[in-house]
Write a structure and sequence with these properties.
The protein is α/β, with parallel strands linked by helices. The chain is 38% helix and 19% strand. Helix 2 (70-79) packs parallel to helix 3.
């Protein structure tokens, strides 16, 4: 399956370069936000891409991936873990193909970070309410109501939410790493070392294996 990603300059806006700017030290180019468009209508892909061609968030432009069925969408998401947003059609190869993909993203791929915006050409108020309640999605739109301005606002809001989630996950990983690097001993009743982590062994100046079974003597500080 060939998956093409659009990064051509035809869909980007060039940054203005100051007349007296330092040309010898250009600013680093930030990786674009990956946006996956999932729809069986080619025209929807073209219009969506054109509507978002000028979008830029946190100094990063948008890069578009395209899927025309639920299976293609899942394949892309499995092989491209940093997709930030999925614009997902509800009705494709089946009447509930998009809903199935939304559920598989969360339950099978265990991707809790990517933002999912459902779009449909056949709206129904009761159906919309049910979908919002029953599926872990972030927004739901009727295609006829999703103007260029509303689409832009929805996409930027989704990217902001994704960025916040990624930052929170990174912070949690840093905290966990610091906890893992703390000094840790497991002792038996006689204060013999049963387990010791690398940080503790480093402080004691001996390999972990050499410390196992040794009695840890802790002297009380004198007043």
């Amino acid at each position: 399956m060939d998956v093409k990603e659009d990064t051509s300059a035809d869909w980007m806006i060039e940054e203005d370069v100051p007349a007296n700017g330092d040309q010898s030290a250009p600013a680093p180019v930030l990786a674009p936000w990956r946006v996956l468009i999932v729809d069986d209508d080619v025209d929807v892909h073209v219009v969506t891409k054109f509507s978002l061609s000028n979008a830029c968030f946190q100094g990063r432009r948008l890069s578009f991936l395209h899927a025309y069925s639920g299976d293609e969408a899942l394949h892309i998401l499995r092989t491209t873990p940093d997709v930030a947003l999925v614009l997902l059609d509800v009705i494709m190869e089946t009447s509930e193909a998009g809903l199935k993909v939304a559920r598989q993203i969360r339950d099978e791929l265990h991707n809790k970070l990517v933002r999912i915006v459902l779009r449909t050409g056949q709206p129904g108020q009761a159906l919309e309410h049910s979908i919002i309640l029953d599926y872990d999605i972030n927004d739901f739109w009727c295609k006829s109501d999703l103007t260029t301005r509303k689409l832009f606002t929805t996409v930027i809001s989704s990217l902001r939410s994704y960025a916040n989630l990624v930052e929170a996950e990174r912070h949690l990983a840093d905290v966990q790493a610091r906890l893992d690097d703390s000094v840790s001993f497991v002792l038996d009743e006689q204060h013999r070392i049963l387990e010791v982590n690398g940080k503790a062994a480093e402080l004691l100046g001996e390999p972990e294996a050499a410390l196992l079974g040794r009695k840890l003597v802790v002297s009380a500080a004198e007043d």
